[in-house]
Amino acid sequence: MEEVALALAWLKKPENERSALPLDEDLPGMGQFYCLHCDRYFANVAVRDEHFKTKRHKKRLKTMAGPAPHTQLDADLAAGMGMPDNGPKLMSM
Ligand SMILES: [Zn+2]
């Protein structure tokens, strides 16, 4: 269970604080500015953020997200189950 908690803590960090990407001199921006949806590397954060605004990226994002990007909570609510007891905790994540 501890590993799960650690993974969640990592996911909650702002993206620019994550340091999971290995440095690679052969890649633009040392491989630190990556769009995992498009499998592309960028020279710096500004270029990457510009890329995030492009139609091409958004289309890719949609394709990868699939037709039903719902959380389990959404599914429960939609099924008329109401808020689970631990609802507020989930909401604050
Ligand atoms: Zn992209």
UniProtKB/TrEMBL annotation:
Residues 35-57 form the C2H2-type domain. One of its GO terms (biological process) is ribosome biogenesis. SMART domains: ZnF_U1. Gene3D superfamilies: Classic Zinc Finger. The keyword Zinc applies. It is found in: Cytoplasm; Nucleus. One of its GO terms (cellular component) is cytoplasm. It holds the Pfam family zf-C2H2_jaz. Residues 58-93 are annotated as: Disordered. It comes from the Eukaryota. Keywords: Cytoplasm, Metal-binding, Nucleus, Ribosome biogenesis, Zinc, Zinc-finger. One of its GO terms (molecular function) is nucleic acid binding. Its main location: cytoplasm. Belongs to the ZNF593/BUD20 C2H2-type zinc-finger protein family. This is C2H2-type domain-containing protein.
